Each structure stands twice: as structure tokens, then as C-alpha cells.
User: Fold these one by one.
Assistant:
Number 1:
Amino acid sequence: MTKWIKMLSIVLNNKYICNKISLTLLSLLMLVAIKLYLLNEAPKQVGKSIDPCVTEGRTSVTFIMGDDESQKNNFYKNATYFYHMDITQKTDFVVHSCKTLMDVSEYLSNNSNGKKFGTINMVCHGNPWQGLSIPIAKHLPRANVSNLENALKNKWIKPLCSDGIDHNTIINIVSCGVGQNDDFKSVINKFFTCPDNPFPPLINIETHFVNFSDKHEKRLSDFYFVLSKYEYDDPQIIVNKLQNKYQQIPIDWQTAYNNDNKLSGDRPYKHQFRMLVEWKIGFEHQNEIPNLSKEPDIVTWLKTQNDAMTELEQMKLKLEDFMWHSFVVTDQQNTLKIKGYANVEGVMVDKPTKVTTEI
């Protein structure tokens, strides 16, 4: 840098040269000198951290992966507003047309337009047991662990490979607690990591339950729960189960489970939903279809089915968690359908730090 300053000083102090050289050339020399200094003296980044200066000029996109089924839960509607308007988390594009994993993959592969992606958000319902609520593709089932593994193994889908994605791309999976399941984290990372790309993206998979309780707020919560095949009329049974399971958690379970107000500030509140597991099993001949009229018979038969047991194991669930039903499918030849219902009952505790808009 010292040599460049001396040279410029000589140029500026020589009146004859100054009369002959235009100001444009002097400006150019100054820019070159500064550039060389920055290249030689500026500190270098080490490691896989995301450089905010790199991501600033990149394209950001949010995929809203579903539609609200009722006015009681405006999850997708509020998420749309949030990612349009939030002062820190809004993205350049908010896309509603992609409803499967393959839709997202095709969009990212075909719409980089010569630019790199910075932040990519995928917003959809899900849970730690069954993965994402969306299909893998239009002709494939739900994006859970076993279905994704089968789709990748059989090459029904391919990992995402896009010129617009590199190590400075951040992919955020915004879905309730799916990051709690290590098997799901592993297989979703396989899907979003191109084998030919030596610089894979950074993938963040939400471990908390997430809700967009209104247009201005993204709320993260811890969910303490128990599973039951029965719908108990006496809430004290659930309270006792929660107390036994989470003895080290300092929560008044009785008060919390009796609190139905989800907007009660920092107070824990009741949360419940019903979970469905379903399989269709095809047989070559009608006489091969087992007679499973009673639930104990279904449980005994399912224990002999490796695929079903593997799927439950990957979901961290047990046969005993469900109430099982079976029936013969009328519109598909020699096909048996088995359904299992489980009640997920528990208490939600909102995290103290909330992401909110300022608009």
C-alpha cells in the first residue's frame, strides 16, 4: 500500500503530469490502490459461517405449503402476512403454488435466474412423529421418514441440485417439532444435499412447535405431551400422566391443562390433537386377506409386518399408542386398509423470545 501512495503523491505533485492526466484516470488509480489494499490486508473468513455480505444480494423465497382448513386456525394466512411484511424476516418472494417437496425442488432448480438463493423458508404443518404434512410428490405419499427413504432409494425422487444453491444458502424448515426426530433430519438433509455439490446449503429444521398466532407474530413453543388410544372424560388422568412423565419440569400440570386460553401471555396452556396412521396392504388373492375384526387380532398381525413396525419405530411410536381398525377396500381389488388413531394430549409453553413484526 505504501508504494501506491508514494506513486499517487508524485503524480499529484507534478503539475505537468496533472495537466495531462484526466481526473478519471486519477480516480481509477485510487480505486485500484484501495482494491489491492483490501485484498491484501482484509481479514479472511474461515469455516462454514454464513457471510451476511454474501447473502445480502441474494434472492430469498418463502414457500407456503398448505391452505387453512378452517377459520379457527389461520396458520398459513398469518404466515403469508408475516413473510411478506416482517421487517427482518420478509422475503423477496412468497410462493403458494408449491404443495409438495418436488414442487419446491423444481422451483429452486428452474428459477435461480443466474443468481444464488440466500434464505429459503418452507412453511407447513408437521410433527416429530410423522414428519411434514405435505406429499413428497403429487403421486407419492406423505413426507415422513420411511416414505422419503423409499423414494430416494428407488430413485422416484432425486436430491435437490440447483445452480442457485451453495454453502451460503440457508434452508429453514418451519414445521412443528420435526427437527426432534433424528431419522427425519438425516433423510431431509439427503434430499436437500446434491451429491455433486461440494458446498451444501445450511439446513435448519425446527425443533420447537411453531405457530403464527396473528399476522405479526411467529411464536415458538415447547410441547409436553402424552399419547393415548382413549379419549378420557376425566382430565385428571392426563394430568397424572404428565406429572409422571415430566417429573423434573417445574409446571403446575393441573392449572396448565385446565387453561384453554392460548393467548394467556406466558402461562402454559392445553394443547391436543388426534394423530392418524394408515396403511393399505394389497394381496394377490382374496382368500389371503386376514380376518381382523377385533383390535387384538390387528395388533398381533401388525407385529408380523416388518414395514409397519419399522415405520412406527422411526416415528418413535408404539402399537399400544393407537386404537386400531381394519376394513376391506371396496374400490381396490384384494386390498386391506388399517387405520390407527392416537390422542396427543399435553401442555404448550411459549418461548419467552417471540419474533414479531414492527408494521
Number 2:
Amino acid sequence: MRKRNNKLVTILSALVIILSVIFVIAHFASSKSSKPKDNTNAGTTVTQQDKTEKEETENSGTKASVTTGATTAATTAKTETVTEKAAAIPPVTTEKYDGTARYAAFTFDDGPSPTITNEVLKVLRDNNARATFFILGQNAKAYPNIVKNIVNSGCEVGSHSYSHKNYAKLTSSEIKSDLSNSVKAIEEVSGTTVRLFRLPYGSKSDTVKQSINLPIILWSYDTRDWAYKIKKNDKRSASQIEADRKAIVNKLLNSIRDGEIVLMHDMNKMTLDVCKEVIPALVKDGWKIVSVSELAAMRDKELKSGTIYSMPIKDAKKTS
């Protein structure tokens, strides 16, 4: 009997030890699984990197379009800012030309750009100015919020074709199809009616004029900003780039005429830097910067479909 009892005690003791070991192992495993993974620092690093890239994109305006989360956040931030302040822009003017004030229509081609257009809009807004943006249909689809910003800022949108094809090399049916696709893309995102068209490269022909059912707006002054755009691996020195910018600014300020249609491109930092100086300088000197349609309306100039306009818009008697 004693041996049997001792054996039972031994078995029970072994069971107690085994259960204790199991309990300890189970408790340890539970504690380990409930503890968060040690990725706090990694998450912080990514967040900070996104923040840094966002700030760099907003401040420099020189980076090309990229598809990182940081750049998307930066572009969204700019979009919201411009939309929020759009109320500062007064409605389209209905005033008539009194013979004394000087007016110029600023126009911007090829956009919108995810890094430049909103910044140009800010310059316009800060100077109580408006402009006409001749947009590519494919870019309207790519950056719909920026197109909306243009409209909300009191500016005008026109078509610059769908993908910048040379219309002088297309058939009439091809021109009509491309223009239709462009207008549809722009109107869908802007919520406005496209009333003006600008030819890619300014290339025109009789076929082009007969195929386009919108007024064709060219320009009376080419800033040639496109010829001096700042490239990613620009071989020019910083001083040369600044000299080029200054040359564009000085020539425009010294040459601009009343009723001028000014050609620029909202696709490069050079254009933005030129606008930052030219627009405030003109406004300070008494100029009013307006859209093409505003300029025509205040001079009682009817813009007709299929007609090409490339001279300063001065009055109803002026032919283009």
C-alpha cells in the first residue's frame, strides 16, 4: 500500500510540474503575441520622409511629375489651398474699355501641370488677375482637380487639342475627332463650356480653319518661355538661368501693348518665376490682366468660329 501511495504521489507531482511548465509557456506565448511589432521607428521614418518630400515639392515647384504618395499629398494640399481661397477672385468683369486703362490677356498652354499651374494661379489671385488656360484634353483627365482650380479662380479654360498633335498635318475628320475628344474631356472635369481653341504649334491651314467650330486664338506676343525652360540636368549655370529669366521679363515689360494676347506655358519653373515678377509689375503700373474672352467683350469684339486671332484685341473695328 505504501509503495502504491508513493507511486501515486510521484505521478501527481510530475503532473503538477508538467502543468506548471505548460502554464508558463502559454503565458509567455500570449504575452509575446499581444505585444505590438517593433516597427514604430520605421513608421515614423516613412511618415517624416513623406512630410519632407511634400514640403520640398511645395517649396521648389521644380520636380517633374512623380507618382509617390508624398507628391500626391503635396499636389492635393496645393489643390485644396487654391480652391479654398478662390472666393478672393472677383467674377468675370463686364466693364467696357474706357480708352485709358491698359489691358492684356495672359494665356497659358499645354497644362495643367501638377507642380506649376496652381502656383501660377496663386500669382494671378494675389494680383487680382485672370488668364486663359489652353488645356490638353489628356492633361485635363490626368489632373481634374487642377482644372477645377483654374475655373474656381475665375480664369478661363480653352482647348489646346487632346494630345498636342499638329493639326496642319491631319485630315478634317481627324481634326474634328481630336477636338471633340479634347472639348469633352475638359468640359467633363471643369463643368464649363469650352468656347476657345488654340492650335498646337500655331500651325494653321484652310482645312484647319474649316474644321474647327470655335474661335482660334493664337497670340500677339510670344514670351518664348518655352525656349528657356529649366531642365532637370540643365547645363546652364544658375547665373545664366537668372539672366535668361530677367531677359524674358525685361523684354515683355518693355514691349507689351494694350490689348496684347501674351503666350506662356504653365509647365515649367521658368514660366512661374517670370510670372512672379511680370504680373505684379504690370498691375502696379496700372495694367489689368484678364482672360481672352474678357478682353474681347470689353472691346465689343465678337470672336467668331473658324476665325484666327493673332493681333492685339483693341476695338470692334480692328480686324484679325
Number 3:
Amino acid sequence: MNLLSWKKKYSAISLLATFLLSFDLTAKPYAFITNQLDNSVSVIETQNNKVIKTIPVIGKPAGVAVNNNKSHVYISTPDGGGFVVLDTKKLQQTNIVKVGGASLGIAVDAKGERIFVADWYENTVSVFDSHKFQLIKMIEVGRSPSGMTVSKDNQWLYVANRMDDSISQIDLTTLKIKNTTKVGAHPFGLSVDSNGTHIYTANVESNDVTVLQSNGLKRLATIKVGDRPYATALALNDSLLFVTNQDDSTISVVDTKTLKIISVIEVGEKPEGISTDKDDQHVYVANWFDSTVSVIDAKTLKVVDTIKTGEGSRAFGLFISE
């Protein structure tokens, strides 16, 4: 082989290696953990459960919403009056968007086109486009809106109105409230199943979970869980519901067919945010007082790893990328 041929072959191999490496890096799922007392976000690579970077975010970061379509993560900043935009490939902050009072809950629609920000003090949900981050509409909801989630068919946005003890269902075509239903005392985190038929909300003060059906937003059941339930996550094809109990430092596991608790799992102190990895098996729990993340295997219902993060880990929302 002459020198020119060798150089061409070497260049081709180098290009291929670079492509494969870059593809591998962008394909890895990350968990974005807000550390409210540290003013930072810990980035965990869920393939090996290691913190690979800590990103400074000013404003007491709390809520998280991952936009896989745009390679963005949106971090609500209650003390900053808005949200921060992170690039999931470069793992750095790219924008700051002002909203108003105290933003907490944050979500993104199924197409990645719109961002929803709950304002705790103004009792509104602000809708932004994800291109130029311009305000589209401000929707009045109940008092102290907190958790939000979007149905996978992109038809509905569900909002937990903490001080009104209610859940609002917003039509994402008209951006108007379709239904509002009373639930337990002080609802906070909530989840909707893959079919969009059932909604589960954690009620902090009544120590229970309300199960609603999407059609008419009717109440189906109330399930007693641990002390001060905060947030919820579904796993194993929606067959199990995981609920963080803040004052018990536990996770209640509910069989979604029988609506019975099948296990109670001890995690770190004051668990708050919870989200399921893209493998639908591993559930990540942010522990506020321990400044850690517990990883639960949904098949064995055991904690399989504990990851040290920053101080005051909250991670309220869907915080794992695909």
C-alpha cells in the first residue's frame, strides 16, 4: 500500500470513529437533577449511574422538563422568575426566559413545540414556543399550580392546583380548560398513562393518590399511601405506579390493575422528584435531605444504586432524556 492510499484509509477510519463516538454520546440517556440549595443541575449518565457534569443554574432550580425533539432541558427557577434552557448535547446553559412570579412546575408538549410553566403566585400557566421562547398565551388555572403532565397523544395538559385541591384538564388545541375536578388535599405531582386514559395525582396533605379517568376527568379511586406523598411515576408498561413519600423516606408501589400497594421501598431522606428511565424498568428518585438519587429496579422492587448529587436535590418533573 502506497503512502497516499494509506492516508486515505486512515482518514476514513478516523471519520468513522468520530461519527460513532459522537453518535454514542448523543444517544446516551441522562437524568437532570436540580439541586435547589446548590443552584446547580447534576447530569447523571443512566447507563452507568455516574454524575458526568454539574451545571450552574441560578434561581433555586426546581422543576425539570426534557424536550427530546429539540435536545433541550427546561429548568424552572422559582427565585429567578422563569426558566433556564440547557442543551442536552453540549450540557450547557443556552438561554434564560422570564415568566413572572414564582415558576415551579414545567412541562413540554409531545411534539416539543410548546413549553408550559406553572406560576405558583400568579395562578397561571404560561405557554411558550420552543423556537424563540416567545409567550403564546397565559392560562388562568386554580390556586398555586404545581405539577403538570401532557398526554402522549398531545391532546391534554393536566395541572395540579395545590391550594384548590383540584386538577385541571386543558385542551391543547384551544388552550382552554375543559374540566376541573376536586381530588385530595394539596395535589402536587401527577402522571398520565401511555394510553392517556388514567391520571394519578399525589395529594400531599391527605396522604393519598387520586385516580382519575381522562374522559370527563371523573374520580375512579383513592389510594392511601405514605406520609406527605409528593410525586409519581409509572413503570413496566404502566403496570406499576411509584409514589414518593416525603416524611416517610419511602416509595409506595401501587399495582395499577388492583390499585393496591404491593411494596414499600426505603430510599434516601425526604424523597421528592421521581422519573422512569427509557428502559421502563429503572426508577430514579431525588432525595432532598440526603442530596442523593436512589435507583430502583421496578422488577425486583429494590434499590440497586445510590448516587451522590448536589445539595437539596428536587428534580420535580420528567427529568430523564431519551
